[in-house]
Amino acid sequence: MERLRDRVTPYLLISEIRSIAADDLWMSTCCRQPSVTIHFTWKPDWPGVRRLLPVIERELSPFQPRPHWGKLFTLSPAECRSRYEKLGEFVELAGKYDPKGKFRNDFLNTYVFAR
User: What fold is seen in the domain 2-111?
Assistant: First the structure.
């Protein structure tokens, strides 16, 4: 990330780095693995941030990061799904308890429930 400092800085308000213990939550970024997370709070410049996100994702790709479901990212749905090993079980459980998809939206249908 240090190599990207000059490209990130113009769009950044705050950055935070945290370590998080592994957990057993199927859709967690830390499922079965302790993790280091990098949080960015961006300035309100979506076009600039949108161009920057793939650059950051490429830089971090050797670590196979799992994007946070509530944050901005540009990974493809297939790539994103491949990083959550318990996604299949989650989809099955969601289908059992929400068979009509009442609690879904376009994002979830694209990134979680698409096959």
Answer: Alpha-Beta Plaits (3.30.70)
The whole-angstrom separation of Cα 26 and Cα 85 is 8
* Residue 37: HSE in the Cβ half-sphere, 13 Å Cα cutoff: 17
**pLDDT, mean of residues 72-93:** 94
Q: For residues 23 and 30, is the Cβ–Cβ distance under 8 A? A: yes
Judge whether residue 115 has pLDDT over 90.
no
The CA distance from 51 to 95, in Å, is 35
Q: How many CB atoms lie within 10 A of CB 40?
A: 18
Could you tell me the pTM of the whole model? 0.85
Alpha carbon distance, N-terminus to C-terminus of the chain: 32
Distance CA 28, CA 69 (A): 9
